[in-house]
């Protein structure tokens, strides 16, 4: 083996140093290029992420790029082949050595902007909101990576207008009414406000594209003249139109029903319904009759909040063939040991037949609920469209489930005494958008034809709300003692 001289050792050392410097330089170049090429495009988030814009709509765009940093950001609105610039922002460039100086780049930014449709010369209709952002990477010939966020939007610039066309002429407290109206454009929501409650309208089943109908409950304690308002809110939610209507009808006299509460019945209720007063049957009963009743009615309101947009029913609703007991609107007085302990309003028709009689659907619909419902026991609720629902309670068994489609006359279950019932019977109720109404009207083919469906086919309607007058319908059956408690 040859012995290395001093000069040879020095040459090898110099060669080693040169190769090390070359390798370091190559590694530095690769690191520099690799780092500045970047692997991720900027991210964009728009808040609020909505699809309808009013005359002026405020936004915030959040842009982020943690690698090479943000280069620029631009917001535009495109409509009919034209592009309108809303926002343009350029961010400071990081040092030429790229990642070597942390904090010298703009990694994230939140920028507010306003789309002022009129100032930009935009018009009602479709448009595209576009946001673009580049980073400072060397991608795309040193132009940086591009991130794009686009949203198809509707510009809602024309204020809504609501025009009254017609109303049911036979209105009575506790009953149902229908108003026909026209909108100048599609609205976010429209309908009628009755006091503090709002009932939404639906596209006219037999009318033109701009016509709507709304079925609404007339308040039970309505005075001789009641004002309601047709309401339409713009799609962007920034404008509202109202038209006031004056509806007239005679006050209605309601039956009074006295229910004597026995100790045996109170003990049964205390056992059947757990309460906060297990040792006091009367207190337990009152808790059920008051608080649980409220909870059950709130549940009904929630179930009936959504309805099919077209009428599913055909003709009058079928009445269960049973003896009428308690009636809709009965003012009930609950008496225990000679003292009045509670008062409630009965919100359906109690019909008694043979025990466990088949209960059939009053009309075609979709099952919205089929489950135990507190004081009403096992209950089925059907959605018949346009906010119209029917309810069948105190059932001993249920033969349908939520989502089932049923025809008029289809079996739903059998009568029973579940819930807060004093004997086997059917509690039948009609509901408009969560509010109970008089079922007798819906059983009457003449009322349905004249007061609901008749308005759908009229070619001409009253030209002013002042013609909206109503008279109470005459009662057709005598009062009988209530059956359920």
Describe the structure.
This protein has 485 residues and is an alpha+beta fold. Among the domains are: 43-155, Coagulation Factor XIII, Chain A, domain 1; 256-442, Distorted Sandwich (Glucose Permease (Domain IIA)), CATH 2.70.70.10. The protein contains six helices and 30 strands. The strands form seven sheets. Strands 18, 21, 23, 24, 25, 27, 29 and 30 form an eight-stranded antiparallel sheet that branches. The chain has a five-stranded mixed sheet with strand order 2-8-7-4-5, with no helix packed on it. Strand 23 (365-372) and strand 24 form a beta hairpin. The longest helix has 32 residues, at 6-37. The radius of gyration is 36 Å and the shape is elongated. The N and C termini lie far apart (116 Å). Residues 99-103 and 459-483 have low confidence and may be disordered.
